[in-house]
Amino acid sequence: MNSRISVPKLAAAACLGALVVAGCGSSSGKPSASAPPPTSATTTTTRPPTQAVVSESSVRVIPGSATGKSPCEKASPAPASPGQVGAGTAGSGGAGEHGARGMVQQVPLTKAEQSALEAQLSAAKAVIRAYPTVKDAEAAGYSMSTPYVPCIGAHYTNISLVRQFDPAHPSELLYDGTSPDSKILGLSYLVYHTQGPPPGFAGPNDRWHQHNANGGLCLKGSVVVGGENSTRAQCAAMGGRKTLLTDIWMVHSWIVPGVACDWGVFSGECPELGGRLGGTAEDGPYPSTIKVS
Fold first, then answer.
1. Which of 14, 88, 105, 147 is most buried, judging by how many CB atoms fall within 10 Å of its CB?
2. C-alpha angle 245-56-49 in degrees, rounded to nearest 5
C-alpha cells in the first residue's frame, strides 16, 4: 500500500470507484425475465455451468442476466470497475479488463455455513433499522464520500470501522440520495486487510473486490472525484490524485427490505438502481424500479 496515503483517508473513499469522469455512475445489469432473482444469499442456479462466463478466479456469470435494459445499465452503459462487475478481477489490471456483467452463479453452502450466514445477516439487518436515513447515519459518525451513483447509491463512510470485518458494524452505508431524509439502500463492508481479502460472510459467495485498475481512483481529500478510468491528467484537473488502494477490500450486502437486487445479496451493483449521478435514485431519465419505504 502506498505509504504516503493514510489508511483512514483511503478507507473513506475506497469503495466509491464507480464514479466515472464522463458523468456516469457504476454499472450493472438486470437479469432477463427468465432468470428469477435470488431470494437469499445462498440461492443457486440450475443453468448449465458450461454456459457461464468464467473469470480467472472461476467466478461464473450467468449469460443473459445482463440485458442492457435495466435502470442502472441505461444510466451507466459502460462498466466503471473491473473488480466490481460479475466476473471481474480484483481490479488491479488495466482499465479495459472488465469482467462480464450479470448474476454470479452461487455456490451451495453447508448447513454450518448456512447457519453462520443467517446469524451474520440478522446482525447486519439491525444496522438498517438503526440508520434508516442519512440524518441517522451522520449522527452516528458516517459522512458522505460520494454523491448518489446509479447502481450503488450514495456512500456514507465511518473510517473508525475499517480495521476489521464485523457484520453488525459496516464501515459504509448506501443511500438513495444525499438529503437528510434519503433512505438506506444497502450496506458496504470496506475493510483494510493485507495479503488478500479479509474473512467475511460465511461461505464463498461474498466476492470481495478492489478498485486498483488504471492507477486506481481519483481522490480529492477523502472523496472520490473520478473513477479508475480517469487519467492522471483528468484527475489533476479535478484537483485530485490517482491513488492505488492495494490493501482495501469491499463487499456489498443488499438486504434492505424492498431492495431486491436481482443479481444477489452480495452483488457488486444492484441493476434496479438507476437514477442520476449526483441526484437521487428516482431521477430521470432512468429512475430506479425499487421503492424504499
1. 14
2. 130
Spatial separation of the C-alpha atoms in residues 39 and 110, rounded to whole Å: 17
Q: Report residue 104 as a C-alpha cell.
A: 454470479
CA atoms within 13 A on the CB side of 206: 24
Give the model confidence (pLDDT) of 231-276 as tens digits. Answer: 999 999 999 999 888 899 999 999 999 898 999 999 988 999 999 9
pLDDT under 50: residue ranges of the chain: 1-52, 92-98
- Residues 104, 264: contact at Cβ < 8 Å? yes
Element (H, E) at 71: helix 71-75
Backbone conformation region of residue 215, classed left if phi is above 0, alpha if psi is from -120 to 50, else beta = left
For the chain, domain boundaries: 7-253
Cβ neighbors of 52 (< 8 A, separation 6 or more) are 60, 61, 62, 63, 105
- CA quadruple 26, 51, 289, 258: dihedral, nearest 10: -100
Edge to edge, what strands does the sheet with 154-157 contain? 143-144, 154-157, 172-175, 184-192, 248-253
Give me 90's grid cell: 480484483
Total-model pTM:
0.80
Secondary structure element (H or E) that encloses residue 235, with its range: helix 232-237
The answer for residues whose C-beta is within 8 angstroms of residue 225's C-beta and 6 or more apart is: 19, 218, 219, 235, 238, 239, 240
Quote the DSSP letter at residue 104: B
Asked if residue 103 lies in contact with residue 62, where contact means CB atoms within 8 angstroms, the answer is: yes
